[in-house]
Write a structure and sequence with these properties.
The complex is a heterodimer of chains A (135) and B (412).
Chain A (H helix, E strand, L loop, with lengths): L4 E3 L2 E3 L3 E7 L3 E2 L1 H4 E2 L4 E2 L15 E7 L5 H10 L6 E6 L2 H10 L2 E4 L5 H4 L5 E5 L4 E4 L1
Helix pairs in contact in A: 2-3
Chain B lengths: L4 H7 L5 H16 L5 E3 L3 E3 L3 H16 L12 E3 L9 H4 L3 H16 L10 H4 L10 E2 L2 H9 L10 H10 L1 E3 L13 E5 L6 H15 L6 E4 L7 H15 L5 E2 L19 E4 L1 H9 L9 E9 L1 H11 L8 E5 L4 H6 L2 H7 L3 E4 L8 H8 L3 E4 L2 H7 L5 E4 L2 H10 L6
Helix pairs in contact in B: 2-8, 3-5, 7-10, 9-10, 9-11, 10-16, 12-14
Chain lengths: 135, 412
């Protein structure tokens, strides 16, 4: 229980624990994902080809349009969904999608969270207490 | 969040189960962003294509629509973004009966909820443009950025569930661009030229969107000459929103809140220069092939003026690859009546309405029709379609029409 802890200003959703998938890049479910295969599909994305299923995504910011508000809910219904979304900043769409899909989300850190969490690290996300902890 | 008496009644279920659930959803989002309370909205606009909804989303909507008669109608005018098909052209897109069934179920659910199926992403050109300081709950990022920036209205990006919630409660959480202090500029952009083509405006919007970088940034743009037309700002904003998730910009001397720089920005804001070379570089990054499988004009839907320009370019031509022009159900009858549709079809093109290409199962269309190399004048569309497996190419409307004739992308 002594791993480094990062406090967030914005939070919602359930407490979860799992492996982090980290990149200093943006995120849009429509623009970046193959939601059938459960991988990042946009060739220019830093996580292109990697599976996001069951991962705690640690990224910089939300990009693109409004579809993510529906798509998180749709992906969750098929079990092809990230475990949590952890961003330096989010737009309303990601928050609305997380609210509908009941997906854990943290945003707003004092440090660049993508530089603070090692890719592949086991992390715990606690939206009730607004923190992420390296396990 | 602080709730007034009416909102407390809604939360207590006195207005029925749908407004109660809608308000609960809005409170979750509002508290996430630290909203102090709600603001009344005059209209809502819902993005809900079935590729995004999936079976789960359609069932969710049908569950809402199953609420008792008299308790399930939206309480402010609520309209829709493009659907996932044009039923009359579904065969051309290679769409399946399962996709069309989802669309029909979605339409039935929305109609039961009292939503008007306008199916347009250019409602500011075709339905009713909002006025300055009007609070709205608009979906579709291109609609929001145009309404905020060009009209001076006030909206955040409202995804489908939240826009529908706003329709059902008549309000939205007061945060983000509903607040005057959030509408002030956060970075200055000095441009050294004013585009003349729609793809040029889109590319400039893309460069600025990338520079600004996130939803909360508000670019203040200087150096634009003359009075931009609505279609130019349509492509400019839609692209900026797509590349950068930007919801509001100001153009000094042009947009309503920025008569002069000091109206909306401190003088010491970081200054970025965007050159003609920067804009050309973005366009060249989408020069990915010399062969073309399909030409698409969409994202945003075309205005009557754009369709008139396209019809003129089609006269006397014969296309060797498919050309699709996508517009709204409001514009399509005029396009037919003015003879534009017939002229485009005479060359072998197609005019579709009520959908948008990227919202219509773009990946499945590609697989069904073998379309990979796609030419368009929409910077927004090229930004989106890479993730769907396309090789999108950005060029002027004239060059795209030439490509539809020859099957080759010839750039000058």
């Amino acid at each position: 229980m002594s791993g480094k802890l990062f406090k967030a200003r914005h939070a919602m959703g359930p407490v979860v624990r799992g492996p982090a998938l980290v990149a200093n890049d943006g995120f849009s479910a429509r623009y970046d994902l193959d939601r059938i295969k459960g991988i990042f599909s946009r060739p220019a994305h830093k996580l292109a080809g990697k599976s996001y299923v069951g991962k705690i995504l640690v990224l910089d910011t939300a990009k693109g349009g409004v579809a993510t508000a529906w798509m998180l809910h749709e992906m969750k219904s098929r079990g092809i969904v990230p475990l949590a979304l952890v961003f330096n900043s989010v737009n309303p769409i990601l928050a609305q999608g997380a609210a509908l899909g009941d997906v854990a989300m943290l945003a707003g850190f004092d440090e660049d969270i993508t530089a603070s969490v090692p890719d592949g690290a086991e992390v715990e996300v606690n939206p009730q207490e607004k923190w992420l902890r390296l396990v | 969040m602080k709730l007034n008496d009416e909102e407390q009644d809604i939360l207590a279920g006195k207005a029925g189960p749908l407004p109660r659930e809608a308000l609960r959803h809005q409170i979750k989002v509002g508290e996430f962003f630290g909203a102090a309370g709600f603001v009344a909205v005059t209209q809502a606009h819902i993005m809900a294509d079935t590729e995004s909804l999936g079976e789960a989303g359609v069932r969710w909507l049908e569950g809402l629509a199953a609420t008792s008669e008299g308790q399930r109608k939206v309480r402010v005018p609520t309209i829709t973004d493009p659907r996932g098909t044009d039923f009359a052209h579904a065969h051309l897109l290679g769409q399946t009966s399962a996709m069309l069934d989802l669309e029909r179920r979605t339409i039935a659910a929305f109609e039961t909820l009292g939503v008007a199926m306008t199916n347009t992403c250019i409602n500011y050109q075709t339905i009713q443009a909002p006025t300055r300081n009007e609070h709205t709950a608009f979906g579709d990022t291109g609609v929001v950025i145009y309404a905020n920036s060009v009209c001076g209205a006030r909206s955040n990006f409202e995804g489908g569930p939240s826009a529908l919630s706003a329709g059902l409660t008549g309000r939205t959480p007061r945060y983000g661009f509903h607040l005057p202090e959030m509408r002030r500029g956060s970075l200055r952009i000095q441009v050294d030229h004013t585009p003349t083509t729609l793809n040029g405006w889109g590319a400039l919007g893309g460069v600025i969107g990338r520079l600004a970088g996130n939803y909360w940034a508000v670019p203040v743009i200087e150096g634009i000459e003359g009075a931009a037309r609505s279609d130019q700002l349509k492509h400019f904003g839609a692209s900026m929103a797509s590349f950068g998730s930007i919801a509001l910009y100001h153009i000094v001397g042009l947009t309503p809140e920025a008569a002069k720089l000091s109206d909306i920005a401190a003088s010491d804001l970081p200054l970025h220069r965007v050159t003609k070379a920067d804009v050309e570089a973005l366009q060249k990054s989408y020069h990915t092939d010399t062969e073309v499988d399909v030409v698409v004009f969409s994202a945003p839907q075309l205005s009557l003026y754009e369709l008139g320009d396209l019809a003129a370019l089609c006269d006397g031509r014969t296309f060797s690859v498919p050309l699709l022009a996508v517009t709204s159900p409001q514009v399509k009858p005029d396009c037919d009546r003015m003879g534009y549709t017939a002229r485009i079809e005479s060359a072998g093109g197609h005019v579709l309405s009520g959908m948008c290409f990227y919202q219509s199962y773009a990946r499945e269309i590609s697989e069904a029709r073998g379309w990979k190399r796609l030419a368009t004048n929409s910077a927004k569309l090229v930004n989106i379609l890479g993730g769907y497996g396309y090789r999108p190419m950005l060029a002027s409307m004239e060059t795209c029409v030439d490509a539809a004739v020859s099957g080759k992308m010839v750039r000058t």
